[in-house]
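Give me C-alpha cells for this 73-residue protein.
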Amino acid sequence: MTGLSTDFRLPVACPTCGSHRMRVSQVRNPDDKVFCASCTRYVCLYHEACKVIDRGPGSESEALIEAAANRKG
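Here you go.
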C-alpha cells in the first residue's frame, strides 16, 4: 500500500504504538481504511478521520503540529 498511499497526521494517536502519522490510499474515498504508518494497525475509515480533523486539535501546540504535517504542496 505504500506506493499508492499518502500519509497525514491525526490529532488522535494510534492505540497500539502512539504514532499520529496515518496512511490512506491516494484516492481518499470515504470508505477507505486508514492505517497507522508506523505499525500498520487499522485505525478507522477515512470519513471518520476527516471528522476528527474537522473537530480540530486539542491545544495550540497540537494545532501547529497539525498545520505543519498536513499542509498541502
